[in-house]
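Pasting as-is:
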Amino acid sequence: MLIPKERQTYGIRVFHSNIKDLLNEDELPVAVNLLSELIKGNNNKRWVLLRKKLLQSYPFVLLDSAMEKLHLNGILIFKEEKVTLAWKIKQIKYHENYVDDIYKFIGKTTLDIPIWMSNPFLSLSLSPPKTLHGKKLYKILLEQKKILTQNREAIIIDELGNQIVSSSTRKGYYKFIKILYGLYENAEQQRKEYWKIFSQRIFGDTKVIQLNDKKRIQQFFGTKLEEFGIISERSEVVLSGEFTWVYEGHSASSLAFKDYIAFPRDMINEMKLISWMPSSMLIIENPDLYFSIIKSKLLLNKKWSILLGSGFVSSQEVSLVYQACDLGLKEIFIWPDLDPYGLLIAQDICRKLKGQEVSIYLFGFTEEFFEQVGIYKPLEPYDIDAINILLNQGGLQDKISKVLKKMKEEGKKAEQEILFSNIAKKDFCQSLFTESISQGSFYPW
């Protein structure tokens, strides 16, 4: 017999009135606050963090009773995990069938609803799609628009006929449609983006696309999303160095691991660093380059920590860096790929670490490094757009501006892993200190 380790639960009671009629007077403000937290952003909150926040304003008894009533009536869904003989709430979200009732209950109007929900079907380009994936998405979008217009309801199913999302959920369905529009643009314009950058471009916010949305898209296409311009992201946070941490009451040391540690992402928010030895950190964007440097032991674990950025750093990487800064991390060196997004990644790290007492430097983003690579990839149209944006920012040091102009003039970009053999021949630590560019030269704000 298989025993599940996780489950989702919600009640099957049916109500035909207002959510406020399910609660007593004392429970109303608790429920409003709880549902407002879920409706305004991420509809899949970690219960430990949300519970801690709510208990600062309301007693446990009221919070528990309000939650239970919302759960029994199917408004709240609990994602639970098995802990010894009991079930523990891990995450909490609202049932999308009741989104209109929730908006009414918490006092939000249609003006508070995101603009992409008020007009989910944008006008497609008049010219016919050119790419294979563009044609597929174009057909899907036209079919969904036609069905929703004629029947006032529509569903999206996978290849096996399983329902993925229905228009009855409104927010989930409209968000799915908006993502399809973004993927259509990716296909036709040959864009390649990480989910966060894609979300920022399509919705104006990096946090709008959540894990459930990604799973729906994956279920629908049943293929690698790289084919639709979405760059895959690691599910772990990879880090080296000498440090210790505590997780669920248990302490551990990096000394018990060889070379590096791959932390599951969902573990980061529940763990705490308790000691940190390295005063310097190197953040590397390119995975191949990262593991080459780690395996070669060019930097000592006592003095250096090496973090795999693998694109734009997430909140989990930032959380670890914040904790390391509090425990003695003094300087961070960023080594991105030689393309415009490499510089944007470095600037993004500076922005996210603003206010921390740590010095930040950029390494390897110069003409000299660009010329040493020898093996290049052609610039895409979106690369050229990004270069133009960076050059128009102003405030960049000449070294940075020159390499961007060189990329644009020659129409090519480069990845840094090819330079590992050159780095391994000299004192890498010394090179980081003498050849890096200070933060003010590439992030002057």
